[in-house]
Structure prediction request, 354 residues.
Amino acid sequence: MAGNSFGNLFKVTTFGESHGEALGGIIDGCPAGVEIDFEAIQKDLDRRKPGQSAIVTQRKEPDEVRFLSGIFEGKTTGTSIGFIIENTNQKSHDYSHIKDSYRPSHADYVYDQKYGFRDYRGGGRSSARETACRVVAGAIAKQVLRDVNFQAFVSAVGEMSLDKPYEELDLNVAESNIVRCPDAEKASEMESYIKEIRKQGDTVGGVVTCVIKNTPIGLGEPVFDKLHAELGKAMLSINAVKGFEYGSGFEGSRMKGSDHNDKFNTDGTTKTNFSGGIQGGISNGMDIYFNVAFKPVATLIQSYETIDKEGNIVKMQGKGRHDPCVVPRAVPIVEAMAALVLADYYLLNRASKI
Prediction:
């Protein structure tokens, strides 16, 4: 299986399955001398971990990361950073009923067709549990870019969405509620809705918005490796993501150029920011902001029809512990992938000037 690595100079390779012994990764290219805040790394993991609230999967995992190499006396050494996160609360028997059947809209069928074999316990390698490794690597990337601020939040659940631009919101409020929405009233409505969806044995999707402030000017390459293209790839690599838009996004297609153009101030900043902080594939120093759309979780705790390995129509019902809505736990994953992209381009930009 290829495709387990992400990045060029700042590169992370992950390993492990949802119900294996452990997850883990290797980070290559992290500069030497970066002082590591271990509490900040664990805090991001805690924001992603299961069992943290009543509206997420109740699998109980501490998700405590253990570093094996690349850090000495609290600072990076410049060598490969190895880490593991042990799985402690697997219930593989919850998945015995899908051993010979395929869950709709999951990777079960295509994995079996591609490899002739699959780990059916929680989806194996296709499980979103793999994203814990991305959060560790992204937390370190954030510490490489200490002056850059990454802040993601839930902006929509189902048909409920924020009707204010992010500039009018206090984004710090997002972490004060379990939905991670920076509008307390809307967060309460979203929470009630997710709980009702869970009672129905159903699931719902949503949108995570990410804002990146204090990005240096000049990150990104102007042809195939545009900054927004790499951000799009990063976000679309996250489980359950169905769409990515940055800046004015699809709304920009409805505007006239005279309204959409970001006019300059004398200091090089712009009066508007429909470009989303990126022009010609290169960061311009303005806020980078984008939306990431997540589909409803495919596992339903209700009866439905599917097929087995022989192509027979069979009845199935989801069992075990699953999220009714993934977006609250996806917030730190989106931040992590954004940080990995910017750290990589930061190092590429620095290398090009040597």
About this structure: The domain at 5-350 is CATH 3.60.150.10 (Chorismate synthase, AroC fold). The first strand starts at residue 5 and ends at 6. The first helix runs from residue 38 to 48.
